[in-house]
Amino acid sequence: MNKIGKVFILDDDRLFLRLYQQLLEAKGYEVFATDNAYKFILYGREVLPDVFFLDVNMPKMSGWEVLDRINHDKALEEVPVVVLSVNQDEDLADVKGAAHFLCKPLDMEELTEILESYCLGHKDHDILLLEGYEPMFSCCRSIREKTRKSCFCTHDLKGAKKYLKKNKPGKIIVRHSKEKFGQIQKELSGREMFRAETFQDVENLAGNLK
Predict the structure, then answer these.
(1) Which of 70, 143, 163, 183 could form a disulfide with 151 if both were Cys (CB 3.0 to 4.6 A apart)?
(2) For the segment 181-193, what is each residue's pLDDT rounded down to a tens digit?
(3) Nearest to 82 by CA among 95, 100, 69, 66
(4) Would the pLDDT of 101 be above 80?
(5) What are the CA-CA distances from residue 75 to residues 30, 57, 71, 84, 110 (Å)?
(6) pTM, whole model, 2 decimals?
(7) Mean pLDDT across the stretch 20-28?
(8) Strand, coil or helix: 72
(9) Strand 30-34 to strand 51-55: parallel, antiparallel, or no bridges (unpaired)?
(10) How far apart are CA 21 and CA 53, in angstroms?
(11) Which domain holds residue 59?
């Protein structure tokens, strides 16, 4: 059977690794898993997955250090990273280079949405939202609840790039500073996008989508 995408998971909880490896393989993904951060970095270059899943609470080498190494590795610069944590820590808001943050235990619906968007594509959400991470509020969830529009959110530019290779959102909304917005426009040249400053701006832009 042809696999629909490749996933590489790093977690020091072997029970978690076995469980999610089995769940994702049952859905048709090719899954690589390890509890060793050094092997994760080494074999990540060989595997070149569609998505990395990275636990932050790792012994010897923290998940944040692994994330930093991934972000400075040219061979891995296009692979979005999903950070896994048992806590919605405020400190996560200052961490750059992760496309998504998922709190354990993982929400399978949210996990499936991320994987299908990056691997299968053709999701064609109403909104692609690119914004900084805020652990206590989901702007995407608010959009879905208040405007009934579908939304895919990423917190990192390479996540947005990966998404846009296989999906065609109705509107791209960026909630960042003017300077950051200008940088993103250059990276995603040729695509129409809208800048928002507040949650209300995002909701208004989403609500005005025909």
Answers:
(1) 143
(2) 999 999 998 899 9
(3) 100
(4) yes
(5) 20, 24, 10, 22, 27
(6) 0.90
(7) 95
(8) coil
(9) unpaired
(10) 11
(11) 6-119
Q: Could you identify the residue written with the tokens 């070149």? A: 48
Tokens 């979005």, residue? Answer: 80
Token pair for residue 37? 């951060």
Question: Closest by alpha carbon to 64, among 72, 52, 56?
Answer: 56
CA distance 169 to 39: 36
* Residue with tokens 């790792």, as numbered in its chain: 58
100, 16: one domain: yes
Distances (CA, A) of 77 to 17, 30, 69: 24, 20, 10
Looking at 75, 94, 119, the residue that finishes a domain is 119
Q: Is residue 23 one of the residues assigned to a domain? A: yes
- Provide the β-strand partners of residue 8: 32, 52
**pLDDT tens digits along 58-80:** 888 888 899 999 989 988 988 99
